[in-house]
Amino acid sequence: MMIIQPNEIELESMRIIHEAIGEYNGPSENLPVIMRVIHASADFDFLHTLTFSHNVVSLARNALRNHTPIITDTNMLMSGITKRYGVKIICSMSDEDVKTEAQSRNITRAIVNIEHAVNKYPNAIYAIGNSPTALIRLCELIREGKANPSLVIGVPVGFVNVIEAKEMLSELKDIPRIIATGNKGGSTIACAIVNALLYGLE
Amino acid sequence: MMIIQPNEIELESMRIIHEAIGEYNGPSENLPVIMRVIHASADFDFLHTLTFSHNVVSLARNALRNHTPIITDTNMLMSGITKRYGVKIICSMSDEDVKTEAQSRNITRAIVNIEHAVNKYPNAIYAIGNSPTALIRLCELIREGKANPSLVIGVPVGFVNVIEAKEMLSELKDIPRIIATGNKGGSTIACAIVNALLYGLE
Lengths: 202, 202
Prior knowledge:
The structure is a homodimer. Helices cover 51% and strands 10% of the residues of chain A. By secondary structure, the first copy, chain A, is an alpha/beta fold.
């Protein structure tokens, strides 16, 4: 049987995911985030790999209510985040000065993007779905006292630097953080987390 | 050990993925597509779920060389595709007339987006990473002779209509197609497939 009403598709999807998860013993505020990530990936691994610092969902929503901007590591992630709540979403990956600086220093544009963002928005929400080097640089800047994000979403994907980057973030105990441990992650995962936080503002 | 040069990160990632895949017995033109999908997801399930129609990679690259536009089902996917090759990438999901029509007909915007695209570009490359209803509508329009895509990438994700949509596409034997069977897929997967096809133009 085909369901074609948009609202019904969403409800039925979430019902299926909820049933598949079964009993959930973690903090209830985390569950909608986990469900939306599974909704975006059809991958139940995230039920076990997503880790949340204490009260992070409430803290993040307070920051969003106070108009804290969201910095992303890719234009793709920026593009996927719902615009419904008027939150400022920023990514300078395509800026010419970021490209030029990255080439001249022979580092990733993702690192330069983060450095520029930290200069302007040290307390922003940082969502990293793609680039482990961006996350590593952000963690260094936090350690040096140059950044103090309201939230770090650390879900880069891949096989090089990814585990190391997530471990670095997990050691920053004072920073509100959501991490997908292991190699998995990606822009759609980061996007699902941000959107779940935003939908919860309603 | 941390690798920070962008080119080295990419090479080392691909080396790890290639080693993990081991012996690959499928058509060699498909392997770079599979590898880039695993690179984007860290999910080796796709080694087994990605299915390719005969010669689809060569056919798709010929279409791209002939300036065939790419239609996407989300802005997020459009945003992630490399702009390096000057290929036209089109998504009208945010257009006001698409929103209005979807609301008045009580169907997904994704369906209306596809209908509008088929009217203008019946032979385009269609990349569907998110919406099964978009893929179903596209398959109906192909059956009715109204669309004859150069390629359909059918990798919507989720639990409602997704398997059915992919089965519909797999039955259209005359259409060049790349499908991720099962529930998994997503915008990052569709994006990785399109980018792998584009990188191969070099």
